[in-house]
Amino acid sequence: MSALFEPCTLRSLTIPNRVWMAPMCQYSAEAFGPDAGVPGDWHFTHCAARAAGGTGLILVEATAVSPEGRISPADLGIWNDTQAQGFRRITAFLESQGTVPGIQLAHAGRKASTDRPWNGGAPVGPEDHGWRPLGPSPIPFDERYAVPDELTGEQITERAFRGRRPPRTGRRLPGGGDPRRPRLSDR
User: Fold this and answer.
1) Domain contains 100
2) Which one-letter DSSP state was computed for residue 26?
3) Cys-Cys with 141: which of 46, 91, 105, 145 at CB 3.0–4.6 Å?
């Protein structure tokens, strides 16, 4: 007998089945303005349809912990309260369907500030809502990419988390009652 539809327990977290949705970058958030990085109807529909179909665990796509950490200007973010609030509707619906919500926290580092893949994925500059990437060294990803601003370990922590505790122990996927859930993709 297959265990696919049997519950799966990881430490003290029980997932109702082993049908899990891996994080898939959608590059579909607003790129700039007050709603930059906020999950919208696109993201809700993407996750809600799978939850309604019985998916046991849904990991939300790569979600940047800081504006400079986005892969593209159209990535989701969780560096401010507006973005965190945007996740509440998704999280509430997933849980209403018995689905465990999770989140893939991300920082693109020296590979940041690129266009959407279907537009070629090339690096974008400030004129296209891009930014100068940040990284642990001044070495670009390749010759097409800008030289990243080199950060110390202390600067990485300060910039990525804006002086707050890292998301593993601080901000978590809003609306969910279990602080362990985001950690599934945060290791």
Assistant:
1) yes
2) -
3) 145
Q: Give 7's pLDDT tier (boundaries 50, 70, 90).
A: very high
Q: Judge whether 183 lies within some domain.
A: no
With cut-offs at 50, 70 and 90, classify the pLDDT of residue 161: low
Residue 150 lies in domain: 19-170
| 82: nearest Cα among 137, 142, 47, 40 | 40
What is the three-class DSSP state of 90? helix
Q: Strand, helix or coil at 66?
A: coil
Helix (H) or strand (E) holding 51, with range, is helix 41-52
**CA 4 – CA 54 distance, rounded (Å):** 12
Q: Note whether residue 182 is domain-resident.
A: no
Count how many domains the chain has: 1
**Distance, CA of 175 to CA of 35 (rounded, Å):** 19
Strands (E), 70-132: 76-77, 100-106
